[in-house]
Amino acid sequence: MKCIVGLGNPGNKYEKTRHNVGFMVIDELVKRHHWQLNKKKFKGIYALESLAGEKVLLLKPQTYMNLSGESISAIMKYYQIELEDLLVIYDDLDLPAGKIRLRTKGGHGGHNGVRNTIDHLGTKDFKRIRIGIGRPETNIPIMDYVLGNFSKEEEVAVKGSIEKSADACEAWIRGTDFLEVMNEYNR
């Protein structure tokens, strides 16, 4: 079973914020395939579905960003999901809005949701898609920036990166080796 996790914060207040692009990719996959996030357990909401004969678990942790690892580790343990079958999607300040980067492992880069995930899994060796949100051009505090909404210009670029990220997820689910998916989508 493949497990795809989008990081974000629960609630309408955060729905369209920069920090929630991981949730937005899960929402895009749900919309494309007419799936439903209809299960609530493990401090998250999730769906168990299948695509191209592969079982897929889509998860949106409901712990708030900084405690995402609690939900991820609990659901992986319960469903006996191997680390190689985990893909985590989240925002990245160091990439411009609209850019995505796929990796097979890495550090947290200052991202508290990823830091907590690494802490709970006991490893940084898991697949990820980083979605660029850019850095603030003014002296706005980082927390205010990531919890703010995209500008109109950014919205167009980010919509494209959400769609590309969902495409990459689908390619991986359908059996394309993740390194090939990386080569295709990191261009």
Automatic annotation (TrEMBL):
Q: Supply the gene name.
A: pth
Q: Which reaction does it catalyse?
A: an N-acyl-L-alpha-aminoacyl-tRNA + H2O = an N-acyl-L-amino acid + a tRNA + H(+)
Task: Spell out the residues of the site Stabilizes the basic form of H active site to accept a proton.
Answer: D91
User: Which organism is this protein's natural source?
Assistant: Compostibacillus humi
Q: Where in the cell is it found?
A: Cytoplasm
Protein name per UniProt: Peptidyl-tRNA hydrolase
The Gene Ontology biological process annotation of the record reads: protein quality control for misfolded or incompletely synthesized proteins; rescue of stalled ribosome
Keywords, sorted A to Z: Cytoplasm, Hydrolase, RNA-binding, tRNA-binding
Indicate the quaternary assembly: Monomer.
Q: Please give the function described in this protein's UniProt entry.
A: Catalyzes the release of premature peptidyl moieties from peptidyl-tRNA molecules trapped in stalled 50S ribosomal subunits, and thus maintains levels of free tRNAs and 50S ribosomes. Hydrolyzes ribosome-free peptidyl-tRNAs (with 1 or more amino acids incorporated), which drop off the ribosome during protein synthesis, or as a result of ribosome stalling.
EC code:
3.1.1.29
Q: Which domain of life is it from?
A: Bacteria
Question: For binding tRNA, which residues are annotated in this chain's numbering?
Answer: Y14, Y64, N66, N112
| Site feature: Discriminates between blocked and unblocked aminoacyl-tRNA | N9
One GO CC term on file: cytoplasm
Family per similarity comment: Belongs to the PTH family.
Annotated active site residues, numbered on this chain, are H19
GO function terms (MF aspect): peptidyl-tRNA hydrolase activity; tRNA binding
